[in-house]
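The instructor's notes for this session suggest beginning with a concrete chain rather than abstract definitions. Hand out the sequence below and ask the class to guess, before any prediction is shown, which regions might be ordered.
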Amino acid sequence: MIASWPRARTAGRPPARAAVRIFAIVAMATIGSCARDRPRGTPSVLREGDVARVGDMGIPAALVGSVARARGVGTRDALDALIEDALFATAARDPRLQGNDANGGARWAEIAALSRRAIERIRRDAHEQGPPSDDELATLTVVHAVVLRSTILSDGEAAGLANAIRDAVAGSADASDFEKRASGVPHPNARVVVQRLAPFGADGAMSEGGILDPAFVAAAFALRAPNETSPVVETSFGWHVLRLIERRVSEGETLKRRREDLAGAVTTLRERMAQRRVLDSWRARERVEVAGPAIALMATVRVESE
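After discussion, reveal the predicted structure:
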């Protein structure tokens, strides 16, 4: 068991995907002119130079490269951020995220403002919920299985294997049964890690040291009752299936101290969980396509600092 797999790449530093978000939102406006209308639900073909498409909007390899260069991140993180920003822009048309700013029929040229609107609305909602609740200050213990990213498996194959693990552990009685079933799923050409983690809170800090990936923490806190199992969750490390073992709430002075120390982390966690709900909802509605040779295409784009 290797406890470091679900950790963030650098303790105290936001994940790369979050780091490119602001730049990606602005950059998305530059590809508005590339979008072409087509009847919803009809097959599409990625245009030459595009590595992905969200709905009717293509994402060129050159744009991925410019985001990666500007923020000093990998092309995969830049592409993921651009896809998420496109989904947020689509979600911003939903009146529930617009508040009193409803504005239907947005043009693609307005995508940056739309994406920002959705994210800002989520941020306001997180702050308006007030101080952390006792439940948000809980310490969680989980067991998980992760299909690690690999140059051998495509993302689709890795996600498919994670879903097979999810199916296998669905009826497991406890953490030990979860581990046994997850480890028993055949995984040729894939590296799968199954492990229990030390307790952690809303900030992702584990009691034995180390910081967990923020997406992992958000998925864990979405689990309410012991033995509840998550859907497949993607992080920078791979595709995870989580099982909640325990959610423990402190008392007395310890709880008071956690309320003071974790106030900011809880607000950030609220934002991240709400963003994930929006993204998951709109991924189910919008066609998201990534070119088969996307990685190879992006590899031809220079990402060194200039």
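Then share the key points. The beta strands are 50-54, 57-60, 139-148, 192-196, 233-234, 238-248, 288-290. The longest strand covers residues 238-248.
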